[in-house]
# Entry
Amino acid sequence: MRSALLTCVFLLPACSDPAAPTRAATEVFASFQQALRTHDEDACRRLLTRESAAVIASLPFAEAAAQKPLRIDGTSPVGSAFHVQVTDPNHGDRRATFVVVREYGQLVVDLVASASANAEVVALDGAANADFHREHVEPRELTPADLERIRQFELTQPPK
# Structure
């Protein structure tokens, strides 16, 4: 009896569903999208990272409610996070990725990481690119604050 109980305890993790965390991440994103569409700021706050929750006031609640919901195409684990791939039917089926992470033991949507995951590098043409990287320094007259910083720096130097 005792060995059967121990066998069950050791085999229990092997019997658990390996896709459960991925499904949970998908459900968290779906819940966030629903909260956004229904203008539920409290639910959005609970479903976002602390850093992302700081921008709740600027979320596009009205726009999200007026448009078709994003289609969730799949979720994949990436390191300790999950990438939820979506298609936006409102913008020509444009694809995007939302990042779901674990914060304080809960799965939440990370809008900062999501923005980074969807960032596109845009190269400027040759002439504009050359001007963009050129440093431009113009001389100006020192202000009394500049002179005071110089004096304070000189006072901190060891005697010669």
Summary: The two ends are 85 Å apart (CA to CA). The chain has a mean pLDDT of 84. Helices lie at 2-15, 20-37, 41-47, 50-53, 61-66, 111-117, 126-133, 144-156.
